[in-house]
Amino acid sequence: MRTTPKPSVDIAQLFPELAPLAKETVRLHPRRGPEPGIAESKMGGTFLWPADEPWPVCPEHNDFYVTVIQIRAEEVPEVGFPDGKNLFQLLWCPEYHDETYTTQSKIFWRNTEEIQNPLINEFRPKSYEEHSIPTVCYFSPEKVLEYPSAYDNSEELDDKISQWEGEDNEGFYERELSVAEGTKIGGHAYWIQAPQTPICNCGQDMEHLLTVASWEFSGMEDSRWCPIEDKNIWTTNRQQIETVRNATGLMLGDAGSIYYFICRHCKDWPIEWVFQCS
């Protein structure tokens, strides 16, 4: 179990225009430990895969994709599953593509009851970028209420919040009161740079589905996004800190994140992704 500290300020009470912009996100809190079962929610490891279905191969690098995230509907229903499906799987090519250093991803929606003959052996790539294959982790899902990034707020609202912060607390809303950091489901995107919400071919803004982050929280001891149960890590050494803050072992570019967006207005729910780093 992991618990995000409560905010020190009820920002929606101070700025009522934020209240209708609140969203619930599910922080996944990946942590190292024994690998969950083949059909359980997890980061990396062995996924429930039909033995008669070919394993994805990257056409550019002619090499295998790797497992990244698997989520069961029973454990994290907030993903929002298609009718008749109860398992979400994300795989990606562990080699960077083009000048943006993004991965190429594949998403699968499955029904666990339909997989009677699962694949036993994993396919491992011959080559890959360092820190692009996640360490096996279990999840401790936690619902958290969050507000838009300062990047997503109107200029008028951003000015009002900045005046409230003052020079001594500049950026306090963005750091502590707005968007949850880390790997999570739904809610608002924790943008590292300017917002890049994709627009679907149907003309609708796509919905934030998932963020895969390099770090669960920033390197500050007083960060609100460090769970209460992990506050004692700051009295340990750097290696122990990193096994919590960076339990997955991922480092996407320069401490970046990959944001996945979905359009549920369209048939087959198209998904796109955006990569950002500092």
Task: Characterise this structure.
This protein has 278 residues and is α+β, with helices and mostly antiparallel strands. The chain folds into 2 domains: 1-29 and 140-278, no CATH class; 36-135, no CATH class. 10% of the residues lie in helices and 22% in strands. A 6-stranded antiparallel sheet has the order 10-1-11-12-13-14, with no helix packed on it. It has a 4-stranded antiparallel sheet with strand order 3-6-7-8, with no helix packed on it. The longest helix has 11 residues, at 155-165. The mean pLDDT is 93.
| Strands in their spatial order, largest beta sheet | 10-1-11-12-13-14
Structural class of the secondary structure composition?
alpha+beta
Task: Give the C-alpha Rg.
Answer: 19 Å
Number of helices: 4
How does the major sheet shape up? 6 strands, antiparallel
Number of DSSP E strands: 14
Poorly predicted parts: none
**Shape type:** globular
